[in-house]
């Protein structure tokens, strides 16, 4: 039987002399990646729940190279596709001295830019970025950070809803929700629909891409609190859902984040490669352990791209959800292992340090204070009876960012202060938080309260670009604008003080008015300079090219 390419190729981990290419096929086969007609990597597919995958690492490439590649399944060339309107897909290796550009964004709903979808969701910025890069080749180091909600397992489009309904009718499954993804085959179809658009597919085949999950990759408000987890455990389908959500995340997203060396050390990768048949049991067992033992696996990953250190943090799966004193670490957004991992890599030395956190570290001040107040009340700062109301508010209004995990916020603030003062090695020029999640984009400039304040030290900023394709409804936009008002900021500060919330180690100002359209962010680094840009499509149809909405020096 001749195998076909079901999904991909995706160009993943960027290395100085290696390139990693991920594919899904519709049958077992030998996958070969041929770079520039010469350098070849070959891997046999492995199987999970009847789906077939391969991860090929091409080695021995020159640093800083941009070279075309082809994909073969057995003897058949399947990529590039015949008559493709796009330039040949390329592998890109990192050059240590070259300028670096990072594209980033979150919250992507696949719509195809139909007239109807653009009214509700806006332009798809992954598609628009593909059109831009096809016309404007980028020199130097380049990577794309997809920081959350690559797929929406709980808010599906009509095409996916039809797939789910047919599956429920075929299986006679009346206990599983018809409008949410639960089973492995359903997640596989969800990724298929998200990444098979020709423009998105070409973009992911030619730009090294790093990924991390947020809540909708699993379910809205995933791990908001211990009470949320207890409520989900009561659903008979939740065990299957979280197992397949994390299992497919490891296969489709996380595996490609790892360097070849780190992948070989990964225990699940070793188990999958050693399996002679279907590795479903190994993947399922791993995924359930990752859910029930959050500190048992490190989802965070780090990368040195030129002079930029990129730390991609797991702010979802590894959360510690204790319900005691917020200052003792029993409740944290990274969990104990995640904090130790971040501390170990958050050091001086690189010219720039980027912390990719799906949820923003720095929010509008009123929201920050409201979340900190809510955590304190949930922990009993106002006695026993308000706790239940505070927990309901936490879940209803999504009060679950860094400010709602004050132990984590303080620990990160202290670490950033130490890095900025040169206490962890030579101070970088910038420490940048790149985030998404909130469905609006903004810039906040920050400094540590213990900094010298002479303007010559490390520059710290929060950059948010969200969504890629899922623009916020009008009601949400009004709430955000209200949160920026001085009266609400004073109310938030008063509530925080009444709950005895200590002041933050970081202070910040919102430098830009929140923008609610779809955007993709870009940060360019050269020597010790950094510039941030936000691209959008203010007008035009499905072929519109993105324009710079805001560009500023950090």
TrEMBL record:
UniProt cross-references to PANTHER family, sorted A to Z: METALLOPHOSPHATASE BINDING DOMAIN PROTEIN, PHOD-LIKE PHOSPHATASE METALLOPHOSPHATASE DOMAIN-CONTAINING PROTEIN
Q: Which InterPro entries match?
A: DUF7800, Metallo-depent_PP-like, PhoD-like_MPP, PhoD-like_sf
Q: Start and end of every DUF7800 domain?
A: 3-90
| Protein source organism | Nocardiopsis sinuspersici
Highest taxon listed in the record's lineage: Bacteria
SUPFAM superfamilies reported in the protein's UniProt record:
Metallo-dependent phosphatases (SSF56300)
Q: What is this protein called?
A: Phosphatase
The residue range of the signal peptide is none
Pfam family name, one: DUF7800
Q: Where is the PhoD-like phosphatase metallophosphatase domain?
A: 143-473
Gene3D superfamilies, per the entry:
PhoD-like phosphatase (3.60.21.70)
